[in-house]
Write a structure and sequence with these properties.
The chain has two domains: about 5-60 and about 165-325, Rossmann fold (3-Layer(aba) Sandwich), CATH 3.40.50; about 65-160, Rossmann fold (3-Layer(aba) Sandwich), CATH 3.40.50.1100. It has 14 helices and ten strands. The protein is α/β, with parallel strands linked by helices and about 350 residues long. The protein has a six-stranded mixed beta sheet, sandwiched between helices. Strands 5-4-3-6 form a four-stranded parallel beta sheet. The model has no long low-confidence stretch (mean pLDDT about 95). Helix 3 packs parallel to helix 4 and helix 8 (about 170-180) packs across helix 9 (about 195-205). The structure holds ligand F0G. Ligand F0G binds near residues 191, 284, 286 and 287.
């Protein structure tokens, strides 16, 4: 017994690994697929037709762990002594954790002031070397790419093909959990690696759900068709103006007969709140963009028929700053005092 196996062990015949690849794992993958009837109702869909894939249940609290277990394992196999990434937060948290486990240096380039507190604390505690860039994610990514030319370092952003290979396993799991492929797949889109990876995973399984990607309205280059210079949204994880996997996202949309749309910050927060307060599922705001998109189509009476899966990419605990917008009613009492409910 070597502990919870993780997704490389589970899907190794479908991944680019050999007997010589060291397995750097934290037991990632195998995340819950939760039926959400309140969400279905709000979108005008029948009970049992909408599920959420809770990727915040991965070891570092986001889907990034799927790609990172493979990217870091392959980096070790290739003899790297360090890894690098730019990140809106989750990639850096995941890279830092897996690098710590592998005994590699980890350098992360973060857009100053735009990384949620939980994610930053993970990078700190896992011992990453932090470079704060006075700029946005897209600018930080250019710097990480340059720095990655340093001997011994591997870039572990989603431009690294092993990242997408690892992330595609989520599509395999969904098909296994539902007993069939969904008809529609809803997903937040930032740098567009994840929508590309899911589409690859579905295609490899012979499945063809319609892919619906959702960007934040202030950071929606794939909707407008042109890069956004100063992306802006409270959904900081997807605050990206020029996605690396642009072509992958467009191919997923067009080959599947899907769409890429945008949702406002208010719509994202409404979905975030609906999930947490009526379904008991706490995701981070960026993740709620997928459900916000479904609700938006529902309001227009255009929610697609059939079985729908919405990916919730990261855990709500990542971003405690956002919850400060809700003022709880708290009763303050003396210990031992009576309280009327
Ligand atoms: N949701 C969350 C919670 C994310 O952290 C990200 C990306 C996305 C969605 C979008 O995924 O980039 O594959 O389209 N976060 C990256 C990061 C950019 O640095 O953590 P994508």
């Amino acid at each position: 017994m070597s502990g919870t196996p993780g997704l490389i062990a589970r899907w190794r015949d479908r991944l680019p690994v050999t007997a010589r690849t060291p397995l750097i794992t934290l037991g990632e993958g195998n995340t819950p697929l939760v039926r959400v009837d309140r969400v279905a109702k709000a979108a005008g869909l029948p009970p049992g037709s909408v599920f959420v894939k809770v990727e915040g249940a991965n070891p570092t609290g986001s889907f990034k762990d799927r790609g990172m277990t493979l990217a870091i394992s392959k980096a070790v196999e290739s003899g790297a002594t360090g890894v690098l990434c730019a990140s809106t937060g989750n990639t850096s948290a995941s890279a830092a954790a897996y690098a710590a486990r592998a005994g590699l240096r980890c350098v992360v380039f973060l857009p100053a002031g735009k990384v949620a507190a939980g994610k930053l604390s993970q990078a700190v505690m896992h011992g990453a070397e932090i470079v704060e860039v006075a700029g946005n994610f897209d600018e930080a990514l250019v710097m990480a790419g340059e720095a990655a030319k340093t001997k011994g370092f591997a870039l572990v952003n989603s431009s690294n093909p092993f990242r997408l290979q690892g992330q595609k396993t989520a599509a395999f799991e969904i098909i296994e959990q539902l007993g069939r492929a969904p008809d529609n797949h809803f997903i937040p889109v930032g740098n567009a690696g994840n929508i590309t990876a899911y589409w690859m995973g579905y295609k490899e399984s012979g499945a063809k759900p319609r892919m619906f990607g959702w960007q934040a309205a202030g950071a929606a280059p794939l909707v407008s068709g042109k890069a956004v210079k100063n992306p802006s949204t409270l959904a900081t994880a997807i605050r990206i103006g020029c996605p690396v996997s642009w072509n992958g996202a467009i191919a997923a949309r067009d080959e599947s007969g899907g769409a890429i749309g945008k949702v406002t910050d208010a719509e994202i927060l409404a979905a975030y709140r609906l999930l947490s307060s009526t379904e008991g599922v706490f995701c981070e705001p960026s993740s709620a963009a997928s459900v916000a998109g479904l609700l938006k189509l529902g309001r227009a009476r255009k929610a697609p028929a059939g079985l729908t899966v919405c990916v919730l990419t990261g855990n709500g605990l990542k971003d405690p700053g956002i919850t400060a917008r809700w003022k709880p009613k708290i009763r303050r009492v003396k210990a031992g005092g009576a309280i009327k409910l």
